[in-house]
Structures are given as C-alpha cells and as structure tokens.
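Student:
Attend to each token:
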Amino acid sequence: MNRPASRDADLDFAKGLACLFMVMGHTAFFMGYQNARAPGFIPLWIAVESPLVLFFMATGMNVIHYVRHNTDKKGWGPTKNYLLANAALFVCGLSYNLNRQSLGLMDLFQGIACAAFFSYIPFRRRWPSWAIVIIALETFIIAANYAVGEGFAFRNDRIIENGYLLISTPEFIKSAVLNPDKPLLMSKYLFFLDELAAFPRWKKLFFIHFSVFPWTGCTLLGGVLMRHARRKSRWLLWGFFIACLALSVYALPFFTARHIADYYFRGKPDYILRHVGIAGIILLFLRRYYASRGAALKWVEFIGRQSMIVFIGQWIIIEIAVKFIHPDPNVWSLLGMTALTLFLLHGLTKYLAGKVRAGMNTPGYAKKWFRRMIVLSILTMLFHYGFKDSPAYANITVAHLLSYGAAISFALAFPALRQLIRKPKQ
C-alpha cells in the first residue's frame, strides 16, 4: 500500500483537484455554456459541482488536524485562536464578495469560515462520530426542505422575468465581464443578486448560497472521515458514501441547474447526496492510497495549498481571457480555455505565493496589506453603490477593477493575519 508522503499531501491534492474543476466550471459559466445548454452540460455540471463539497469536506479534515495538533494544550487558548481566525476570515472575505457582487450574501469564504467555526466545537469536545453524522444529516434535511420549497418558488416566480436565461449566450459573455456598452444586460444579473440580498438576514445565513445549511454538514462529514479513514471502521464510511451516491441516482428526482437561482439554492436532496457520495469516495481513496510522486501531482498539491489565491486569481484570468477571445460554448473550446486559464493562473499564483512567503514574518507585512484591503474595499463601495443607479455605468467597471485589488490584498494579508492570531504568546 502507498501511504501519503506526508500527513497532509493527500489533503493538499484533494483541495487542488477541487480547485482545478472549479476553474473549469467558472470558465464554462463565463463562456455561456449553461445558457446555451451545450452538449455535455449535465456531466460537466456534476463534475464541476462535486469539488465544492470536496473542498468543504477537506475543510472538516483540516479541523481534525488542528484539534489533534492542539490536543495537549489545555484551556481556552487554542479554541479562542481558531474561532478568531475564522471570524477574521468571515470579515476579511467580504472583499471577495465585493468582487463577486455578492455583498450581503454568504459567499465562499463566509461559508468556509462558518462551517469550520460550527464544526470545531464537536470535534474539540470529542463528540462521538455517530452523533456528528446525525447532526450532518439533519443539516442536509433542513437545507433540502428549503431549497425544494422556497428555492423553487423564488426561481419560478421571479427569475424568468428578470434574470439569466433572458440573456443570449453572446450577450451574456459580454455582460458577465461588466462591459460598459451593455449596462442593461448586466443590470439583470445585478438585479437578481439584489433580490437575493433582500431576503431576511437569517435566511441568507442559513439557506442561500454558501450558507450554514448544508455546508456545515459537509464539513462535519469530512471531519468524521478524517477520524476513521485509516481504521477498520473506514468500511462503514465506504458503505455510507456509496449508499449516498446510489440513492441520488436511483431513488431521488434529478434537479439540474436550469436557472442561475439554482446555483444559490444548492441544498436539493439529490445534489447533496450525489456530491457527498462522490467527494467522500474520492477522499477515502486518497487518504488510503495517495502517494506524492511526480511533478504533476506536486503541482496539484501546490494549487491546493494556495487555494485562497487560486479562488481569487481565477476570476481575473477568466474574465480577461473570455473578454478578448470570445470562445464558442462547446467542449473543445472549454478544454482549451481551461488549459489557458490554468497556465496563466499558475504564474499568477506562484508570484503571489512568493510574496506571501517572503513577507509572512516581516514586521508590518500583515498590517500593510490589511490596510490596503480596507482602503480598496471602501473605494469599491463608493464607486459601485454611488453610481449604481447612474447612466455612467463605466464606474461599475472601475469598482470591479478596484475590487480585484481589495481581494488580492485579502489573499496576501490573511495568511499572515491568521499566523498572528494563532501565534502563542511569549
């Protein structure tokens, strides 16, 4: 049996694999692949959605890693440091929301922060695995009830009139990169996000986009998997994840993404079970058999270690590439655009990761980039909200460019900020 070269190499690979498929999915989105209902859309949609669950389950495995590393440390210190670091991720991640025009919603970094926050206590207190699995399943049931009920009602009542599917594929490609020549088209998408943001705060926290339900359940299952992946009890997990996948295929109705609203109400039962099953099987296999060998595997591990930079940097590359190339929404164009995006993204990620590595332990580094993040975030909001109802739509483009500066500053500042929070007092 090939064991991992290090305790985290398989986890880095899993995160890197998730990042690669997410890049493909976002490339397809900006190409108008979903809008055109291009051939192969359904398998593509399944392939690029599974990594989201994979990443959240890997986050749960990281929670276990932190708990094990600090298990001999008594008192409130380790818990305080971990929860503060996730609270900082939640707040600083709002700069990413500005870039994605999702301020007021739970986006990726808020979802990860909340999932890790709520998962930490059960694992720190060493709750039994069976109890944690029950809690995870309860989060899935709550999410499914909301997504099938209110999520579908929202989609059917509103999105036909105001949203995504009224925009043709060529128009969506242009409007999605905030082309100032197409203000009315992009305004439909922004209007849709405004409708979501108008939901009560508790609904946005618990049910919409990367919300507490069902994503905390995925993180809890990832932690349970980490506990048992190398024990004899792992066979129970193999059976559990295979059963989840089988149920999603043979026993539940298939809800495909027909409207952009479906990407914000992901808690449908077939979606949860299908992707939990796929992600769980992948993680169990990697945890048991992965060996860190060869340049290609190590490159994927590098992408996984730098996932925060990848999440942010991908949008810069994708938006520029699609804007200037205007690819047709077909399989070969998608593969080519994904390859180009990954090539350019690798260079950007390597450069930014080098800056983080060089500055992490430099006095004032975290403060400098945190300050830049705050200033650029404020400027972004001034341009975006100050001109949102104005014919001068180019100011929205200025806001978008400024938001990239804010998001990149966040990616450069947060690793050092987290290190400062977790650093033991002398």
